[in-house]
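Lecture 7 notes. Example A: sequence first, then its structure tokens.
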Amino acid sequence: MPFKSLYSVFLFIYYIIIYNNIAYAVEFNTDIFDLGESSKDDIDISRFSQKGYILPGNYSLKVLVNGEVISANADDIDFIEINNRKVKACLTDNIIKRIGFTTKALNKVTKWNHNVCNDLSKIDGIEIIPDIGDATLKLSIPQIWLEYIDSSWLPPSRWENGINGLMIDYNINSNLNKYSGRSSWTKSISYNGTIGANVSSWRLRLDYQGNAGDSDFGSTSFDISRSYLYTSIPELRSKLTVGEHSMSSDIFSPWQYTGIGLESDDRMLPPKLRGYAPQVKGVADTNARVIIKSKNRVVYDAIVPAGPFAIKDLDSSLRGRLDVEVIEEDGRKKEFSLETSTIPYLTRPGQIKYKMAVGRPRRDNHNVDGPLFIAGETSVGITNNWSLYGGAVLAKDDYSSFAIGVGRDLGVFGTLSADISQSIARIDDKESTKKGKSWRFNYSKSFDDADADIQFAGYKFSEEDYMTMDQFLDARKDSEYRDKEKELFTISLDKNFSNIDSSISLQLNHQTYWDKDSSDDYYTFSLYKYFDAFDLKDISLSFSATRSVYSDNNEYQDDYEDSYFLRVSVPLGYANYLNLGSSMSADRYTNTVGYSASLNHDLDHYSITAGVNSGDGRGTDAMASAYYSKTTPYNDITANVSYNSNEYTNLGLSIAGGVTVTAYGGAFHSGGTNGDTRLMVDTDGIGDVPIAYGQAVTNDWGIGVVTSINSYARNTTAVDFNKLPDDIETTDNSVIETVLTEGAIGYKKLTVVKGLKLFATITRGNGQKINFGENVVNKKGQELGISSDNGLVWLTGVNSGEILTVSKGSKAECNISIPDNINEEKILNLVCS
């Protein structure tokens, strides 16, 4: 019997499964609803009577292409009955654009419904499946009809230029210093940033910098260091710049000019096809200020904590020499220079990279200096393994330079490029011509078996009469110009030792000159090691050593400065560390103990340190320092204080941020660098809505700005529900996906309601309860709730004294007046009249 019972149950389940998959006309017993005095005829359930049938109308659906959502927000899609109760989805031009069809596929698209809707039936292999229950419209499209897409990149058809607006980004650093033996404090303030305006796809930018105070920074000054206008050209994967710009060449040494430039932009390519950005490494003995300049223009200025630092977020367009200045708390300055270079100039088969410019060379003071020139360079992928590149600079009869080179993929042996350049320069006398050549070799290799990378290795040799554009301009003013470059050698090597949780890094830069025996050199070596001891896990050990060798222009001899830094960090919990450190710089030895921690999703960081400093014949000093950084929704704040018993007391404060204003409103915000890309989020006048893990919060106008946006990449920004106030709720999608062009001000609106949450029973003036499934909306048309059985509604965003509307579909039925005094713990009885 037990077996028969089990068999009967199994058979019953089997029939349920089989019959459940057979489509029948369905009848519903509406008697299950407790309708009170309402009529069953008021309930429209006809849409459920046939399996798969979609009632004509407008539906809010997410569009999926091959299983992937094309937008974080749902689309309002009309379903139109065409014949014999057959319903067809109306795909608008906006949806078609975001799908990312190839040009060949778009040529097959036809129009219907008065040219409002697009018909895809002539594209072979496409299947359109609406799923109202899942609120999706699924499109299955053969990949041959689609542009290239990956998880972090979308094709140009999905890019947005944003909205018109104004912006000001700023970075302010201030210091107060009191040195031993002095009775007064010295103060200094330096600042830099960008002023910008966006109109359509065009961006106007003014870079500024200045300083004030009575320290070594000199007299008060302000300077617009660069003014320019640019726009992206997605069809060419290029960027057009007008105004003051830099010829950031991959072949020639860069120079500044005023004119017009057009260059291909790797950021418009999928991530796997993009180039690389330079990286600056060094060691700070104290909480130091690091300033990086390119052609005397500040491109980076920030305070870093004591220890090794690596500046990784520099602009990928930077080329040539970077001047680095590390200003310690005691006023000491360490200076060194790095040559930034690209990896070997290889281009994929059939792909062309190029840069073109026309204008006149520009010096530091905005004045053009030198003849009109035209310059261009290109790289063409010939085969899978070979690339050919070259370029030319023509400046009337005074200066010209030509270059040609090849790049070769050596497979397991890495990649190699070699090129030769020839310059011809006429300085004072048309009959006096200087001709010279320059040879360059670059190499890059990843040793997978050894878990090591030679990120870049390069060698360059220039003849004595070879001249770059900048050297030519210097020689026009001074025929005996200095620093005639001879040899340049650079290398960057990383090696991992996975089996012992260790890694090493080596960076070397060596430059010699024709007109002096000395050289400029910079070396840095870093070692990182993780280990366990006793009950402590993931203890980290880091060691860095640097040597800067620099020449004295007067004595023509080398001088150098060595430094090292050793730190052991012991985890004491999540993002909390005990730090032991030892360092040497300028023959002074420092030993410290400290504590550091991160809070609030890594938006806050702080550290405290105490120790002793000795050596260099100056006795032993007690020292202490503290460092704190905080990212608020309105700015980034860094504060530091340090004390040395016999030398100095230093107070520092840095504030960085910006303000962005559009026709929809404006907001102060954190981040913002050089007028870069940002997203404005509008919550329609509701403030205190946290966005992107609290990096931005909407203000009293309901405006918040997120600056952690990557150009030409898929960016997802979401409401932070962990920090969302209890009386605020989103009524639609709380996730925003954007792909913005460079410098754009993106704009997205979120539907948010603010107010009480409560249960209410809604009765009509005639005593009948409102019908099942009717909507309750506020004056903005935002849905606050849907009625269930017997007129019961769960309402969100209810405010005292407001008027709500009960509607059936798009038709308003009656209005509700919310009383001034509400007890949200009880069911509220409301009358709809």
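Example B, a different protein, same format:
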Amino acid sequence: MNSHPAQATITCRSFNAGFYVTSQSPSKTKAALLDAAAFADALKSAVDAERAGQRHGAVGKLLRERMPVLRADGLGHSDHGDKVAARIARSMDAIIKALYKLSPAGDAIALCAIGGYGRRELAPFSDIDLLFLHRPTQKSGDDAALRAVTDFMLYALWDSGLKIGHGVHTPKTAIDFAKQDMIARTAYLDTRLLCGSKKLFNDFHSSYDRLRWGTKSQFVAAKLKEQDERHAAAGETRYLVEPDIKEGKGALRDVQTIRWLYKYVYGGAIGEHKAIDKIMDASERRALQKAERFLWSVRVQLHDLRGRADERLTFDVQPEIAARLNYADRKNISAAERLMKHYFLNTVEVGRLTRILFAKLEEERAKRRPRLPALLPKELQSDEAPGKPNLRIRGGRLDFASAARARKTPRDFFRLFRAFSKKPKIDFHPDALAVIAEQTPKVTSDVRKDASVAALFEGILTKSSDTVRVLRVMTETGLLGKYIPAYGSIVGRIDYGLYRRFTLDEHVLRSIAVLARIRRGQLKDDHPIATKIIKNAETPLLYFLAMLLRESIWTLSDKSALQCEKLVQRIARRLGLSAEDAVLVGWGAANHLLMVRTAERRDLTEARAIENFAKSVGSRARLDLMLVLSVCHLRIVGWQSWDEVIRGQLTELYEASAAWFDGGDAALRDRLEARAAAARAQTKAQLAGWSEAEKEDFLSRLTDTMFRSIDPDIIVRFAHLAQAAQTDRADAAVTVTPRDGDIEAIIYADDRPGLLADIAGAVAASGLSVRIVQALTTADGKALDIFALQSPDGAPLEDLNLTRRLHSALLLAARKAPAKPPSLRRRLGDRRSIFSVAPAVRIEIDASRDATVVETEGLDRPGLLFELAAALAEMDVSIVSAHIATYGERAVDAFYLCDRKRRKITDAAALKKIEKKLLSVLSSGSGQ
């Protein structure tokens, strides 16, 4: 670091040198480094050597050697994380104090710890924030003396590899700065004298206390705004499957916010002030400490495991962190899943305590502004249950009129939430939520069987203006999980992998939010069919219950659809559905992915695929439910799980199946033929500038299958590509076009064995993933291959150089088979390899009339489609069509196969050979 420290009165600057841990053995023994006296002697020798000009950087080198030992000692006592953080802070105190004693400072400076270091909270790789307080400079030599002290201290600490943030101030300039900068004001709240002048420190502390006393409301408002902005940046949810344990919702920063607000308003830490009993009782203090302790335990282990300041709890470290914190696998749930469940439960508790503190601070302010008590609005004075609700408005919030009665009458819990569902602008009083959270054990089987409670819950689900907000608070109090244990078992649980962004319960709640928006008509342009279904539904409750209970299979040891169906049926009956509707809901929850899987993995231009799906569904009512479940699922599950392609697939599958239900095989065939005819006519109309003869010649070479499976706009683009190639007498042509963040590639070439594999290899070598592929052949033997390509992480593709390179690679592959296979390497940041997926090959002879369907499943990786297609080409097998589906790290590819003479493969020996070959390809990168 070549620049000098900030001048006196210049505000904080942060120098981020980053830690460097030497890979060589420390020059001192561990015992010497840990022994305070021995370290002090070594430090003095290093300082003396530097001052005598005999050694350069000796102090920094000694400190750099001490840091790994200090961290190891901090972590080496099998303690809770908060105690580890305090121990590391004490060790850092010793280092800084020893260094200060060797500086020329004396009592002219007060060296203070601020921020997290001031609170004695240091993770292994935390920043160290310092404040140098000094008297106003009066003589010309004062500045030089001050600089000598700060240079001596800071350069030694920077050379050690520590990340040091610092400020150099007089007490007055420090307070002036804090008035303008809320970050500094917050950091100064935890200022602690390390060494030097007590008088300077006391002057600063007194001035800060005067500032604090007059700006309480300003500080609270600023912290609330800061928290809202932080939560928005983190995705407005605590239920991300790879959370930020420091800045995420309900994480350590929220714990610190609680402590900051309390200390700023009341002048002391929680537990040290006489007002504590009014603001946070003993049980709430214990709950806060427990959550904070858990989060710190995770954080210190994460820092140690990463060897740097990393706050994101990603999939690759979750198992190791779980092991370090002594989690073990249990029946139906792994150690890593248990860790994450406890993480989410603790962040929920932090959210509850935050809500309590904010509400009570607001209530304290309201007491200074006397006003008449508010009356309970008329619409809240009755509900679906008998008798008058035990409710009142207190401090502008919804509360129990009698907490004692509520503790004895769990039905009152549901009446509170039903009232909120009617008037969501009247927030909950924290005392009411505390009663519910405390008394959830009283939600017994008798309460679950209570018809009036079921009626209240139906009102919450189907008549609320903000259904998900109500359900989320019910979840966070523990009430919803106690009322429906199957739901309670998925709270805070993750589907371990890259497919989902959220925990299972958050996924369910967000899907319900989509359902509620569809029901209100807010998504009718995107989902006209689903909107019509919900609008015409005689029993909307069954759709909400199917959505709420569709992850119930995770709670079962026997994860079969039949067992899930039985479980959901029982719950649906208890919640008020008829026997017939309960059967429908049970079937929908147990099979909610059937439609999505069929749309992604089957050729929907074939009548056989539609018939098989419709027969599996069994009724029009089930088909309606299935479409709604599929839409809501796909809108939430992944970053790119929903787009025009999947909407088109679901719409076609729904409408074709509806035709089959209405008129059987004949109606389905008529619909497929009508669709092909309409697409043919639309394509012809769009071929502007073509003569009638040219149009007829081109269209005659395209099969009905093409028109049923490809959008007319794409066929028109293919037509212009083919015409240009014929004009130039080219044997192949390619277009590469960015579309909505993906890349559309259309390939026109002479069909040949292995063509699809060659093209897929060129794609993989370009570092891209295949999202969708349609491989078709014209009547005159030309291949039409259409690819939708994306980056492995789903990020938008807008690099023009990439599209140029891709075009060249695809054109070369289309013209002739490459002389050598492509080089396939994982891109930096590709995390699929940290998971394992059991390889599987499923063969279905009856899934198609003219081809054998072979479905492969395995760990996704660069070039997987190329390797599978190349393996099939080696066996002299033709790929009629391929259907690509990716679920995070898991790839499921379905191939429609024929032999070289375009005959369906039915020979058992040939099929066994195909299965063995494909399993070999999948196993080579399965992660097993």
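Note on Example B: The chain is about 55% helix and 10% strand. The longest strand covers residues 877-887.
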